[in-house]
Amino acid sequence: MIPLAKLLEAALFASARPIPADELSALAPEASPAEIASALDTLREHYDVDGHGVELAEIGGGWQILTRAEYTEAIERAQLAARPQRLSAAALETLAIIAYRQPIGRTEVEEIRGVAVGSILKSLQERALIDVVGRAEGLGRPLLYGTTSLFLEQFALRHLEELPRADELAIALRPSPQPL
Amino acid sequence: MSTETTTMAEVEADGTAPDPAVEQDAPGLLAPEPVAPVGFLVDLPAFSGPLDLLLSLIRDEKVDIYDIPIARIAKQFLLRIRLLQLNDAAEYLELAARLLRIKAQMLLPRHGEAETWEDPRAELVRRLLEYQQMREVVDILERRGDERRSRFARAYLPESGELALAPLALSLGELLTAVDRILRVTKEPTVHTVVARTLDVAGAISMVRSLIATRRNARWGELVARDAEPWQILSMLLALLELAKLGELRLAQPRPFASVEIEHDSTGEVA
Fold first, then answer.
1. Cα separation of A20 and A58, whole Å?
2. Separation of alpha carbons B7 and B57, rounded Å
3. Phi, psi (degrees; rounded to nearest 5) at B268
């Protein structure tokens, strides 16, 4: 491999979080974005073609080295690492609404789900999956929520646009939420 | 409340009625003996809300979502609330009341032209479809989440745990290396004579202000051009610190050496 690919591999190995492209280029200020991209390709091919137990994944707006799925069970059985807990159905529903309608206030989420979501919003925020992104203009200026980069990371999304557009879902809806 | 009691009585009467067709319609739903609802709690899945329960009823009863037999569904809905002994019953009862109201509206005689008649179920159908669409997204998220969960990063961090920052231990040599690195990415790394330069902090402040007026956040790299002169970099740095002090924006650096994120601080503003 070329030295740049090795450097990126070392940095990705050292980091616990996906590293965005611009932070990768800070590693090698002389390298152009195109050179970084091609070095990343080299690294990915190296893992895929030579048959490694890890792969290079593009997730949450960055790059990350991940173990391959086929070894997860063995790793977990040996108690070397544990999968994070799954979110509850209620939490997932709330996240789904926020992901599609952000920035969105608590009341609108509750209107769609038909239940109070105050405590769920709080725990999603504690898990850093959502965050306050601003305030609405209306009465009392309610807080507006949006998803975070950790959300993308935990759902293996490169960016939000990777989710199907609302009109691509099996059930198409009114084009846009009507203001109350 | 009296309406509900009447309906519940009806339901139980139906449930005990020796009508095999009813039992077939909703397997496992109607208690032959209403005194033993506990047995049903075991096989029924947890519902994440009244709309979830209503949707599953509509599926179980195999009715058309655009033409809901409201009387039958309302009856089943009330029955299930009772069987499940739902804790947050207020939200379920609210929907139950809504169903009964729609049922009543459906019974009213329709006057005038057919096209002026608005189906009282329309709003409910819209909400159900919206909810169902969201459930579709939940399925996608669940799949993607499982996909990600089945692969480990080199060092898995629990969601809440942030990396503890190492205590700052900086030698003069490291500090000079850092200065050197900053100067290396600027256009003219070789500095000859030191000429006192006036910094344009005011200019940088107005530039940042106009940027965050239109956007919620920005990054350091977007504010300072790659080939910026040292005085421009310093002006921008002082401008950002000043604006942060004034509470107009927040500065954050997710990780050491990551690009500084600049965020418009709207939470501090008064309504």
1. 9
2. 17
3. -80, -15
Q: What's the pLDDT tens digit per position in A9-47?
A: 999 998 878 898 888 988 888 888 899 999 999 999 999
Q: Which two tokens stand for residue B12?
A: 């139980």
DSSP state at residue B32? S
Indicate whether B238 pLDDT > 80. Answer: yes
* DSSP structural state of residue B153: B
Residue A124 has pLDDT above 90, yes or no: yes
Question: pLDDT digits over B146-198, tens only?
Answer: 888 888 887 645 455 555 556 677 788 888 888 888 877 766 656 667 677 78
Nearest beta carbon to residue B141 from set A75, A92, A135: A92
Chain B residues lying within 8 Å of A23, measured CB to CB: 255, 257-259
Name the residue of chain A whose CA is nearest to B264's CA.
A134
**What are the residue ranges of helices labelled H in A106-158?**
106-113, 118-126, 149-154
| Chain B: residue whose CA lies nearest to A143 | B267
Residue B227: C-alpha distances to residues A20, A47, B235, B251, B259 (Å): 22, 36, 15, 23, 16
| Minimum mean pLDDT range among A75-79, B12-16, B223-227 | B12-16
B154 and A166 within 8 Å at the Cβ level: the answer is no
Highest mean pLDDT among A174-178, B12-16, B261-265: B261-265
Let me know: does A114 contact B127? Beta carbons within 8 Å: yes
Mutate to test the interface with B, among A63, A87, A93, A131 (most CBs of B within 10 A): A93
Position B80 confidence tier, pLDDT thresholds 50, 70, 90: confident
Nearest to A65 by CA among B155, B146, B157, B159: B155
Q: Nearest-CA neighbor of B137 among A118, A142, A83, A147?
A: A147
Helix/strand/coil for B199: coil
Chain B neighbors of A17, CB-CB under 8 A? 153, 157, 255
CB contact at 8 A, B236 and B223: yes
Q: Which residues pair with A130 in a beta bridge?
A: A147
CA distances from A20 to A158, B219, B255 (A): 11, 13, 12
Given this model, what pLDDT does residue A8 score?
94
What is residue B108's three-state secondary structure? coil
